[in-house]
Amino acid sequence: MKKNNKKSRLKIILAGVLVVILMLPVAPRVKTLWELNQRIGQLENQRTELEQTRQELEQELKQANSPALVEKIAREQLGMVKEGETRVFEVLP
Questions:
Q1: Is 48 inside a domain boundary?
Q2: What is the 3-state composition of the chain as percent helix, strand, coil, each rounded to the nearest 5?
Q3: Is 9 inside any structural domain?
Q4: Cα–chain-centroid distance for residue 58?
């Protein structure tokens, strides 16, 4: 019985060593795969953020091209007035 027990232990040990030896070339690839999956997740998050920013910028562009905004900027920032209007300046005492 002791011979069978020793043989089975030896088989288990040899099988374990064989598995470790076979895993050595695979380990770096598994690590690379894991890192690439992390990078994919980061890039997907970045893509989502960029898509949201693009949508916000498109909305701003639509607003910037509206005649009401153009008029508001012309009046407030450039001091322009429509024909027939008079610009009034407030003078502080």
A1: yes
A2: 75, 0, 25
A3: no
A4: 19
Domain containing 53: what range?
33-81
pTM: 0.52
| Amino acid (1-letter code) at residue 34 | W
21 falls within a domain: no
In a domain, 11, yes or no: no
Residue written as token pair 């008029």: 71
Burial (Cβ within 10 Å: 0-12, 13-18, ≥19) of residue 75 = middle
pLDDT 10s digits, 22-42: 888 888 888 999 999 999 999
CA distance 91 to 15: 95
Evaluate whether 74 touches 80 at the Cβ level (below 8 Å): yes
User: How many structural domains compose the chain?
Assistant: 1
Residues 55/61, Cβ–Cβ less than 8 Å: no
Q: Which two tokens stand for residue 17?
A: 């060593």
